[in-house]
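Students often ask what a 'structure token' actually looks like in practice. Rather than answer in the abstract, let us consider Valyl-tRNA synthetase, a protein of 109 residues. Its sequence is given first.
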Amino acid sequence: MRNVWVVLISVGVAGFAVSAQARELMPNERYMCSWGAGTAARAQELKLAGVSLYAARQKIHSYKFAKSWMRMMAMGITEQTYDSPTRIKPEAVRESFYDDCVKYKLARK
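Now compare that with the structural description of the same chain:
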């Protein structure tokens, strides 16, 4: 009887682990992460080019955004990028932001 319980618990734990790994992001969540990564990369480009945070904010205000949440999100991402002391290349910022965003979204599910 004891062996049966051990087998049942093992199968249950394995099934739970497989279901946890099978989670996928919805296309809109992937789009949000991709868009945010692009915004962070653009902000890093401006920062490395010596553009002030004020000028970067003015550029954001001049953009046309497809969704209402994008303007404030772009402002937040830009400010966080400027607050960071890092000097890495914009492509590395894009990859890092996207990977972290996907991990965060998967962890929330």
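One point worth highlighting: Helices lie at 2-21, 27-48, 53-62, 70-83, 90-108. Ask yourself how you might have guessed this from the sequence alone, and why that guess would often be unreliable.
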